[in-house]
Amino acid sequence: MAEIQLDKLTKVYGDGTRAVSELDLAVGDGEFIVFVGPSGCGKTTALRMIAGLETITDGTVRIAGDVVNTLPPKDRDVAMVFQNYALYPHMSAYDNMAFALKMRGVDKAEVTRRVQSAAQTLGLSEVLKKKPRTLSGGQRQRVAMGRAIVREPQAFLMDEPLSNLDAKLRVEMRAEIQRIQRDLRVTTIYVTHDQVEAMTMGDRVCVLRGGILQQAASPQELYERPANLFVAEFIGSPAMNLVQAELAHANGRVEVRFGSTGLEVPPTVLEAKPGLAGYESRRIVLGIRPEDIEDASLARSVTAGVIGVTVDIREDMGAEVFAHFRVDAEPVQTEEVLEAMEEEDVAGAVRERMRGGVPFIARLERDTQAREGASLELAVDTQRLHFFDAETGAGIY
Known about the structure:
Layout: E1 4-12, E2 18-27, E3 32-36, H1 43-51, E4 58-63, E5 66-67, E6 78-81, H2 93-103, H3 108-122, H4 137-150, E7 155-159, H5 167-184, E8 187-192, H6 195-201, E9 204-209, E10 212-217, H7 219-224, H8 229-234, E11 241-250, E12 253-258, E13 261-264, H9 267-272, E14 283-288, E15 293-295, E16 304-316, E17 320-327, H10 335-341, H11 344-354, E18 358-365, E19 375-381, E20 386-389
Parallel strand pairs: 3-8, 3-9, 6-7, 7-8
Antiparallel strand pairs: 1-2, 1-4, 4-5, 9-10, 11-12, 11-14, 12-13, 14-20, 15-19, 16-17, 16-19, 17-18
Helix pairs in contact: 2-3, 2-4, 3-4
């Protein structure tokens, strides 16, 4: 086990593409870190530089305190688990797991001990003689995990290892990987595009965008205190509702106003977010998570502001209902929206989506009376409002 230190890690390709920009990160001994972000954000490139599979343009990678920039992958004492398993089809599960040890000249008895121990941990003892083609997807993934475990490396590096599995197996393997990592306490860096995987598995989650680290924090902190608009939108499903607003004094209290709606900002929120004091009478971005909106007739929130809406679409999800509606306000022009507006083939669709108000989603209890086309009063938990600088997108705290 070992610490991994990244100091201004940078990758620029020959055509000038900057895949990773000055990534600074300290991964603690035994820590489980997840890199998450949209396609092309640099997460896999960063992992491959740590593994030695990608040359480093600038910066430093340290493993257990040693600089490994120029070391080949085999000398970095890390084990990588790939998306495609990369198993040898002509070898049994046992031989796939033992291959790296045999190549390193490990004693036969020690090879057997390690493989059998890993197989027992992974529930593979009954399939060690089978070839990969006869194994299920979950079993093949376990063999790939076992191949990494038997090496007893200082760190595991995992590149979207569950993306080829169906939804049920992904849930099972998420728990399996967490259990194994907890038992072995091996430093682990895990790459995924799936925020559910990131939030449920990582001790800390690193959100990347355009090769730049946006925020590295615990899942709970990412959810409750997103550093900027990108993190706020990316973390959470459905995504956070965002709207342009302003703070104003009214009748001795502070309100956040958007369109024809005003919500009181509780004194406890103003105390917890002292940065809001500098934004009175200024434009800001208001964020409301769908799960912080309730059917007013069923509301449990102590401090809530009520807004009247007309339901556009009701989505029954079984245990809950997603109610889509629009609010009378100005939309937030995030970078993603602005980029889309520059593309002719989607500009019309984006403008149409914004016409008639800003689309919102509420995540309601299944007992809600929300119906398509019906008027509905919704209660917003004002203790959980999020605020962002309208110009920089930075969170206001």
